[in-house]
Amino acid sequence: MSGRQQKGRVLVIGLGNPDRGDDGIGPLVAGILAGEDLQGVSVIVRSGDALSLIEDWAGADAVVMIDAAAAVRRPGCIQRIDLAAESLPRNLRPPSTHAFGMAEAIALARTLNRLPPQLVVYAIEGACFDPGAEMTAEVAAAAGEVAARVTGELLRLRHMEGLAHA
């Protein structure tokens, strides 16, 4: 699931660090999705350098990313952001231990005209991002719903013109 994926038409990326509490929601959901029969879809996990995202999605027609975000409403709340049409809201930017995070990678890719044609982020609001912390119950409980929403998103993307044969 981790490492370099074969360049494909549809890519799911679970972002986060499972050793930092709620930050592990991206990898958790990616693990659920990797166990499903998602033909034509590559599922990978990234926990480190967000610059690799630009390389990961090169050649992909559609990318769905799952990541934790700082709580705005309540832990476990799920936000869907279509980054092909809008910018990542500042209040939902995920906490990062890296100087260059997902938001910066997206901004750089947009500037360099290297965003995939379809880019959607599912941000799950979290409460605890401390090293060594367990994932909070509210965030863990959202994993199944996020996986179902991403599966629905993948079906929608596959039926779009240009991805029907993905």
Q: Can you put this structure into words, describing what you see?
A:
By secondary structure, the protein is α/β, with parallel strands linked by helices. It is built from 4 helices and 5 strands. Strands 2-1-3-5-4 form a 5-stranded mixed β-sheet, with helices on one face. α1 (25-34) crosses α4 (137-159). The radius of gyration is 15 Å and the shape is globular. Mean pLDDT is 83; it is low at 1-8.
Summarize the structure.
30% of the residues lie in helices and 21% in strands.
* Largest sheet geometry: 5 strands, mixed
Identify the strand order in the major beta sheet: 2-1-3-5-4
Helix content: 25-40%
CATH class: Alpha Beta
Total individual domains: 1
Look at the helices and sheets and give the structural class.
alpha/beta
Strand content: 15-25%
Q: What keywords describe this structure?
A:
globular; 5 strands; disordered N terminus; Rossmann fold; 166 residues; 30% helix; 5-stranded mixed sheet; single chain
Q: Can you lay out the helices and strands and say which pair or pack?
A:
Blueprint: E1 10-15, H1 25-34, E2 41-46, H2 51-56, E3 62-70, E4 78-82, H3 102-111, E5 118-126, H4 137-159
Parallel strand pairs: 1-2, 1-3, 3-5
Antiparallel strand pairs: 4-5
Helix pairs in contact: 1-4
